[in-house]
């Protein structure tokens, strides 16, 4: 009899514990998409799941948000072209600007540069803020998709009203191995180089931020490319 009473009582004590655990999980596990009044903050990798969350927030509050801020994003490990196209459509439909804090690489950089206005902020923890562009590859073969990459480049140049020249964007194809593994870096704050402090660097192979092996581009700042700087 005593055991039966205990068993019947367990759910009553267990429910508050379960609710507490759910609350702790929601608090401790960081969400990819969070909102800050008129700003949507997209943290980390760009995935189709986090894109779905972004779309849901915008569609449920169509007049609330006017900017997407990317924070320390390596880009998309899968479906990069699909994510770029869908975010571009959101930008056009809802007239969204873009911001970046920390690294914004690969698909993140492409989407950032398609914003109606584009702004680089300091890193959240003092880390450098920069964009890194490289060629888009096909999902199945992993071969460079020249046609799609060039189409995105034309859109970026158009969005900047010609300030971001195609000749500079296409420098990502100028790699030494002939595999289009070049990278283009744009830093919010100038970095040391053989030409003195510079903002823009072209890398002839996929070195990912080892700037000593990259070619500095003299005298080009983010503002020259149609990108704003803010604190």
Automatic annotation (TrEMBL):
Top-rank taxon, per record: Bacteria
UniProt name for this protein: Uncharacterized protein
Originating species: Undibacterium nitidum
Lineage, broadest ranks: Bacteria, Pseudomonadati, Pseudomonadota, Betaproteobacteria, Burkholderiales
């Amino acid at each position: 009899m005593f055991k039966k009473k205990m068993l019947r009582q367990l759910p009553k004590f267990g429910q508050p514990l379960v609710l507490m655990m759910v609350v702790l999980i929601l608090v401790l596990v960081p969400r990819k998409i969070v909102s800050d009044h008129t700003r949507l903050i997209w943290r980390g990798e760009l995935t189709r799941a986090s894109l779905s969350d972004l779309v849901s927030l915008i569609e449920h509050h169509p007049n609330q948000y006017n900017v997407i801020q990317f924070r320390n994003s390596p880009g998309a490990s899968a479906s990069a072209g699909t994510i770029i196209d869908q975010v571009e459509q959101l930008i056009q439909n809802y007239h969204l600007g873009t911001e970046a804090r920390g690294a914004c690489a690969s698909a993140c950089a492409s989407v950032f540069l398609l914003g109606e206005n584009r702004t680089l902020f300091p890193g959240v923890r003092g880390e450098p803020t920069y964009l890194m562009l490289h060629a888009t590859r096909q999902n199945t073969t992993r071969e460079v998709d020249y046609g799609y990459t060039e189409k995105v480049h034309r859109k970026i140049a158009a969005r900047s009203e010609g300030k971001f020249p195609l000749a500079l964007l296409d420098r990502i194809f100028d790699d030494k191995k002939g595999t289009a593994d070049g990278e283009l870096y744009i830093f919010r704050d100038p970095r040391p180089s053989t030409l003195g402090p510079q903002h823009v660097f072209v890398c002839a192979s996929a070195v990912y931020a080892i700037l000593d092996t990259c070619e500095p581009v003299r005298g080009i700042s983010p503002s020259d490319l149609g990108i704003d700087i803010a604190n």
